[in-house]
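Usage example:
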Amino acid sequence: MPELPEVETIMRRLRDGTQDHPPLPGHKIQSVEIFWDRIIQEPDHESFKKNLQGKAIIDTRRRGKFLHFPLNVGHLIGHLRMSGDMCMEKRVTAEGNAIPKEKYDQIIFNLNSNWRLAFNSIRKFSRMWVVEDPQSVFGELGPEPLSAAFTPERLDQMLHDHSRQIKPLLMDQKFIAGLGNIYTDEILFCARIHPLRKSNMLSKQESGHLFVAIQEVLRKGIQSSGASLDWMYRGGEFQSLFKVHQREGEPCPECGTIVKKFIVGQRGTYICPRCQKEPGAA
DNA sequence: ACGAGCGCCTGTCGGC
DNA sequence: TGCCGACAGGCGCTCG
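Running the assembly step on the lines above writes:
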């Protein structure tokens, strides 16, 4: 599922709480249950549990597609990859009966209250870390696309530092943090740029359009609480705003040309062949 | 430096 | 209806 807007939505829900559950920060971790070993990336399982026991969660943040939970000692970090969610669940019913875990909960953090934090993932690609220094996980990530440090001038420079197909470059987390397959298709359509254009061949005007498209599409995604893709994630409504992604055979909302699907960098890619001119075309 | 292929998982959908 | 392959939002690895 989750790209930047979906992770941002999950982060805010945990950080601020909802009508149904309290905020996560301020809780302490009593115990940890692991149901799929390979999710723990670092350190080994026993140290992972031991390092978390009794620790206080002091904040909830996002960096790229990572969820970041600073602790009073150390940092808990999670990445959902292709599917999943993190949510607060009740541990015990009003009658005092233990509530069983959800089917796809892979890791459960029992908190010092009637709540637990569940790391939920159907496909088990997700990863978690407990580290002293979050930079050991985030160190290679590119800039946050919605931060003040990310400017049109910087993007233009970054694009010209590479000669790569623009779509795989935008999805490279070392280039920019947070973009995935869906939002990249929407961004390139919004900027009228073909996904196979070489990054260093974009004009200053095109890189300016790309900058605006990146911020606009991400902001709209966050405003819509992200995209819900069938059973993967049932958060927001952004999928109804897709202009080209998963709309093969439908008319382009701008010009009516039929949306085309092809493969770029092994990923299904949707474009309007008229709005997004192929490299080499005038 | 770059791009292609593949593996990791489970579930859904379309075709036969 | 049932089976089977293709495909899905990510990412890290190897190889040429």
